[in-house]
Amino acid sequence: MTAPHDDTSVLDAFDERHAEAFADRLVDHLNGGALSLMTSLGHRTGLFDTLADMPPATSPEIAQRAGLAERYVREWLGAMTVGNIVEHDPSAGTYHLPPEHAACLSRRSPTDNIAVFAQYIPLLGSVEDDIVRCFHDGGGVPYERFGRFHEIMAEDSGQSVVLALESQILPLVPGLIERLENGLHMLDAGCGSGQALNTLAHRFPRSRFIGYDLSEAAIAKARREANELGNTNVVFEVRDLTDFDRTAEPATFDLITTFDAVHDQANPSALLRGIRRALADDGVYLAQDIKGSSHHHQDRGHPIGPLLYTLSCMHCMTVSLARGGEGLGAMWGREKAQAYFRSAGFSDIAVHELDHDFQNYWYVCRP
């Protein structure tokens, strides 16, 4: 027989100092969330770039240089000042972005611009009502509701993938650069706006490239960039990969890549079996996916764990569920990823980490 609940013992166990510390922590979260919104604004309006190129200046001077409305710039500078991001000299009425801050917030830093990630916060906030509905009714929120997602992902990928392709990523597969130079056939499944594929196509004109993605808007952007670069060796197609295990042409590609694309598929197992089916006997599958464990408690020390789980809940998981999918989510983790790769027919799976990339694992998979 269960003992009756003792309210007195619960009250006696209440730690006032712990409660106050936790309340302070929640206030920090509120301020951090607000600064994330303002950081996104600073990135999108170019204000961080403007400040990075200016000596200490007044609000009207900054607004004029940036081509923006001064009243909005002034209020934004207020948030940046109280958030200790921008330095303010009240006697001179000037504002200054320290070079150490500019290194993390301006486009001067193509690989370390944290302002790029801040854009995810307002984007996810825009679908909060939809997510609340899903908590009550189930289902998911479709890709179409996330207006700028592919644009932000392209900036994110530009930092973690595109600039490191030849220096760090391709060398994970010995001899791959030479094979690309001599000419191979490559597929990028879930290619998004095609930034990585267009970069490779331009660099390796003897190879042939194809990119598949479900988003018509992303594919249209990829095609525009291919035309601008003069890439005649790359093709982009709108394609649903939920039946790729049945529709993939066998033994077609020497190299297949997925960049952060498996976990939000409606049917990730079908995609992976299709990749195995489409891969040549001596081919290689190179997958980038989010660094994490398949066990929540093991991600407590992840430097951006809360951000990644939020992205998973409010985008990656829900877009899969919206299509009747599995809803793996971004934080499916290394253990589950390796199990999925093995189940798809890959017996040789090497897991790599790159110095510049703290948010991803890089999997090199062979039959």
UniProtKB/TrEMBL annotation:
Annotated ranges, domain Methyltransferase: 181-291
Q: Which GO terms describe its biological process?
A: methylation
- InterPro entries in UniProt: Methyltranfer_dom, SAM-binding_MTase, SAM-dependent_MTases_sf, WH-like_DNA-bd_sf, WH_DNA-bd_sf, WHD_Rv2258c
Key words, A-Z: Methyltransferase, Transferase
Q: Note the Gene3D superfamilies from the entry.
A: Vaccinia Virus protein VP39, Winged helix-like DNA-binding domain superfamily/Winged helix DNA-binding domain
- One short Pfam name that applies is Methyltransf_31
Q: Which chain positions lie within coiled-coil regions?
A: none
Give the GO molecular function terms: methyltransferase activity
Q: For the S-adenosylmethionine-dependent methyltransferase Rv2258c-like winged HTH domain, which residue ranges apply?
A: 33-107
The protein's name: SAM-dependent methyltransferase
Q: Which organism's genome codes for this protein?
A: Halomonas fontilapidosi
Cite the source lineage.
Bacteria, Pseudomonadati, Pseudomonadota, Gammaproteobacteria, Oceanospirillales
